[in-house]
Write a structure and sequence with these properties.
The protein has 6 helices and 5 strands. Bound molecules: iron/sulfur cluster (2 copies).
Length: about 190
């Protein structure tokens, strides 16, 4: 077939030598490379058994906070939703009823609170905007899921465990922030 350009490079096809036809030296060379890697330090870790320490400024999954008595702090003011550049947060406010003072710290609370994790860019603006220290970005991340609806996190998914009823789960959820039980100084 005639070449369309003059850029054709003729490749020399030398016949294989005796050792090349044996293939053994090439196999041994490949095995030597493989074995040499067995004694090198692994660049990977055995996740999830082992986990890398996160950066101190890591921003992960949001947590809806409670006070030291276990009451929900969120007052459904909507400032986090307004601050969110990804429009990932939605909520519905409700009035606290008499007898519910042990459940909700403020007179208004979020009856429904949702974050779309597929939209969230973990910028932390919701935490910064919150005047009640009711939301913060934790040291964990949203696990993978096969369905889009699995990434819509509701209040049940986001609310921190009750510090009175489940102190261990509460401390675990707070992570290193357990050293600051009153939060990040955002409460007014
Ligand atoms: S971290 Fe940023 S993107 Fe995610 S919910 Fe908060 S404000 Fe929105
Ligand atoms: S999390 Fe904070 S900013 Fe968002 S609605 Fe609740 S109190 Fe307001």
């Amino acid at each position: 077939m005639q070449a369309l350009t003059n850029k054709v490079e003729v490749v020399s096809r030398e016949p294989l030598t005796f050792w090349e036809r044996m293939y053994l030296p090439a196999i041994l060379k490949g095995m030597a490379i493989t074995f040499s890697h067995m004694f090198k330090k692994k660049p990977t870790i055995n996740y999830p058994e082992k986990k890398r320490p996160f950066s101190p400024v890591f921003r992960g999954l949001q947590i809806l906070n409670r006070d030291e008595e276990g009451r929900e702090k969120c007052t459904a003011c909507g400032l986090c939703a307004v601050a969110c550049p990804a429009e990932a947060i939605t909520m519905e406010a409700a009035e606290r009823q008499p007898g519910e003072e042990h459940l909700y710290k403020e007179e208004k609370y979020a009856a429904k609170y949702e974050i779309n994790m597929l939209r969230c860019i973990f910028c932390g603006f919701c935490e910064e905007a919150c005047p009640k220290d009711a939301i913060y970005l934790s040291e964990t991340f949203a696990p993978s899921n096969f369905q889009r609806k699995g990434f819509i996190y509701g209040k049940d998914d986001l609310l921190i465990p009750d510090p009175i009823k489940e102190p261990e789960a509460f401390a675990k959820a707070r992570g290193s922030r357990a050293a600051h039980p009153e939060g990040h100084g955002n409460e007014h």
